[in-house]
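Problem: given the chain below (175 residues), write out its structure.
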Amino acid sequence: EWRMGVNICRAKNVKVLNLTILSSGGDGVYVGGGAENVLLEDLVCRDHNRQGISVTGARHLMVRRCMFDDTYGAPPQCGVDIEPNRPDEELVNCVVRDCVLADNEVSGIEIYLGPLDHTTKPISLLFENCRSIGNARGIEIATLSKSTYPRGEIRFSNCTFEREKRHALILKRMP
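Solution.
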């Protein structure tokens, strides 16, 4: 599941444009480890074993006009997965705009904030004009049951959910 199509870690000022990434053994795209000023535009990430894209940490990430579909295999099996590993990983000014998340085994968008706490820089995530179609769930946002949660904002603006198999939105605290 760690065989990514494109892996962007500890990199700055990266552009990945007009690329089709098919059938990797892990994520189509992985962004983390302090990535900064990353533009992912006009990508098709299809038929990956784990995720269309995983983001564990980034500053100034723009994901625009991308398709993340048909993930199936190793959990979590989502189109877009925002999942930091440690409290010091940042999710600052991360934007997913005009993207389609379709026919993924679990969620179109999954945001797991469990490792973050009050010491984490305030998060800022924006999903704008995105379409979630035919996934088991549209959006799932989860955190751990603890007394200190991360600060910041997660916004969804003008997003649509069509033919989701179970739920359009799930918010949960995990034990």
